[in-house]
Write a structure and sequence with these properties.
The structure is a single chain. The protein folds into 3 domains: 335 residues, ABC transporter transmembrane region fold (Up-down Bundle), CATH 1.20.1560; 64 residues, no CATH class; 118 residues, P-loop containing nucleotide triphosphate hydrolases (Rossmann fold), CATH 3.40.50. The strands form 2 sheets. The protein has a 4-stranded parallel beta sheet, covered by helices on one side. The chain is 65% helix and 7% strand. The protein is built from 18 helices and 7 strands. By secondary structure, the chain is α/β, with parallel strands linked by helices. Helix 1 crosses helix 11 and helix 4 crosses helix 6. Strand 6, helix 18 and strand 7 form a beta-alpha-beta unit. The chain is elongated and about 110 Å long. This is ABC transmembrane type-1 domain-containing protein. It comes from Caenorhabditis elegans. One of its GO terms (molecular function) is ABC-type transporter activity. Belongs to the ABC transporter superfamily. ABCD family. Peroxisomal fatty acyl CoA transporter (TC 3.A.1.203) subfamily. Pfam families: ABC_membrane_2, ABC_tran.
Length: 565
Amino acid sequence: MGKLQVIEKKFEFGFRVFYNLFRLFPLIYSNTWLTLVLTAVTIAASVGNEIVNYKTGVIPGKFYVALIEKDEPKFWHIFWIASLCYVGLCLLMALMNFFSWCLYIQQRKNLVQCLHKLYYKNNFYYQLNGVDDHGIDNPDQRITQDADKLTKLLGTSIIPTVLLSPFIISYYGVRVWETAGGWGFGMIVAYFLIGVIINRILIGPITPWAARVEKAEGDFRYKHVSVRVNAEESAFYKSAEFEHVFSDLSFDVLFKRLLNFMCWRFPSQFFQSFFDYYGGCMSYILQLFPLFVFHMYDNLTPAELSGQISNNAFYFIYLINCFTRLTDLAMNIAELGGYIMRVSEFVDTGKLHQSGIKNEAFRRNSELPEKASGDDNLIETEHLSFGPPTNSNIRIIENLTFHLPRNKTLLITGDSGIGKTSLMRVIADMWPHQGILKKHFKKTDAYFLPQKPYFPVGRLSLKQQLVFPAEENEEKSGNDEEIVRILHELKLGHLLPIVGNIHDSVDFEWQETLSPGEQQRLCFARMILAEPTVAFLDESTCNVDEGMENAMYEMLRKVGPIFWL
């Protein structure tokens, strides 16, 4: 079965970015009280930092006055106060950074848990990775890297700045108005507005290129994951040169997109730097108004005048700095826009799948309720027809009628590609169908064993692999003596000294260590331990010898009926 892939989507920076961010907030703040408390603590530390920053900002003016007046006691008094203020400032800056990172970590946890809930509900992860990706490239990257970068920018940079800036601008705006008048304040506001307009023009292309870079990063990473997982098969094909060439090609795509991304960032970075540093020059231009236009300081002594000019410079520079911090956010917001669009697209598609508006392949399609007992047959079909979920016009099998009696084994044979595995997908409710399909057993009593073995990663213990998908600490997770007996029957006893204790984590990954035959036998042991009412096998013993295969099926016949493809 080939997965249907949609052409790469294009994202643009605009109102929709902020609209999607607003819709993501319930997920980012899903653990509402803890996240709000961390937000409040971060803001409180930021407020404290601004207050102490103001105190330290006017200290140089006091030093000027003390030095010009040659007042040594006053100088030392200011020195000790300044020392304490700077210690407090550094402490508050450290606390602000600490709490903002705690906020980012909590927001990431909230978002990832919500994305996981969508991803694993109703087999949505199978839908994206095995049937139709709906244009959601690299869903794993969206859950990991994109969610990480989104919440990091939001928690450590954007939220503290955006929430505090209006209050800081208001306070220092009043101070500037008092010293430089309306003209001085108006010049700073005009300076900011010009910066906003230019930034809006420059950051427009950054959002789509940020999204393109993330997709190329995911494709490049996936290429190397594929080589790592299939290293032995690749080596047998002697495909090192091929993998080398195509790995380079994958990186070339990423390199070109990164180069374009940096080229679009360059003018924005230049303007931001100019806007930041030229603000210092602007602060001295503003000194003209109180000195030469309004003549506000004509009666001050030279010492008092130097202190006042120093304080004015601090007010002007800090107000300009507040505005430049907002314009500096433009670059972060442009990048954030790419992550927002990718994550929100994932969420929207997931919610669409949960509501059942599109693609009901994973919903139970049988009209009659399932029964645990009381019927002569476990499975009955009449005029069953089905095809791939991606194209309703294609039919792999049409008008199939059969039944599986209780306590009987059914073997289905045929050429490759005629629909044996597809039939198992239909029975497992992974594909839609037409016609009648009656299953007189509980879903929890059926066991599906695919041809390709699967071992979840994480260096899990031998017992955890055998009781999967249950958890090892569950009551019905299998008897240790029974596990050892089954392993010996399947000629897997050599694994016991390797792992030491079946409950201990191992220092290797099972899928990368065991041979194909060992993998299939270990998955078979997993099925025997599950004691299913009915077992569905899809060429699940193709990598073992005939003698072992016969022994394996003899073991299974003692457990229950077999549906053998």
